[in-house]
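PROTEIN DATA CARD
Card holder: propane 2-monooxygenase
Chain length: 340
Origin: Carbonactinospora thermoautotrophica
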Amino acid sequence: MQYELRTQVIEPLRATFDSLVERYGGRPASRYEEATIDVQPRENFHYRPLWDPAHELYDEDFSALKLADPYSFTDPRQFYYAPYVTARAQMFDAFGRTLDYIEERGLFERMPAAWRTLTAAVVLPMRHYEGGAQLVSVAGARFAYGATIEQCLSLAAFDRIGNAQLLSRVGLALGGSESLGEAKRAWLEAEDLQPLRRYAEELLVEQDWAVAAFALDLADRLIYPLLYRHLDEQALAGGAGAVSLVAQHLAGWFADQRRWVDALLAAWVADPEHGEANAAVLSDAARTWLPRACDAVRGLGRAADAAVDTGAERAVDEFAARLREQLAAAGIRATEEESA
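Structure generated from the sequence above:
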């Protein structure tokens, strides 16, 4: 008796979900598309929320910024749960190895005293800014319309609390729990940090989630270049290599964050139905929030210069000028002259 082994291929009756077939045709969908596209609840809501009966439970009108098709925006990173968790686990492992290296060689102890003061008085208090940014992102995740946007905001909220934890670990390595207590007092009481604290708190009560997220991004685009690029370069020249080693991880995270934020801004402005109105809303928001962000981050720069004169306050004006150019290139007019 002989046996013959054969491979039989059973073709699936359909390649993916019907909603994706209607949108993309019969091609196999990616895991990101299956986990994200057309997931937004659109109908069969039982009643309007008692806390806001003017809106449905999920409602496009929670923001003035709209997309004709909420799924015209997709995350360039194609992040859903599995790849996001994998990427961030690698990021935290890499940061842990960097921190182990710094502690084994006593690099924090070897830093000039002025740079230790700068790190404690300026960098560590930003864990509280990241905490505020997490709440802004959570609010956006709740009220955004379209699962691609909501998903990015949800993951950004996890990132923000992760960034706060990274800074907390730096504080513990730098001076134990006392460093974290001093950082909290600086955030609550230091005169130069109060404009930024007020900025973060005002974002928490902004009713339009998209405007709040955009205003948060304006502050990010001043803070991250200041702390993790300008001070990074100055730290290398000033013998504070440990600061530079830490900065590389947060600078890397910000570059990753920019990918989806820039894509979302471009989608809003380019929308065929709402693009012009979206650009007007974003321009109004930029004219309202960017001057406040500049004032707030200048205070952060003054606090840094008080510890080590690196020209941080002057650098903020350079970053702000560059940011206005980037916004103008994206179709967002941040000054009255540009609007004329």
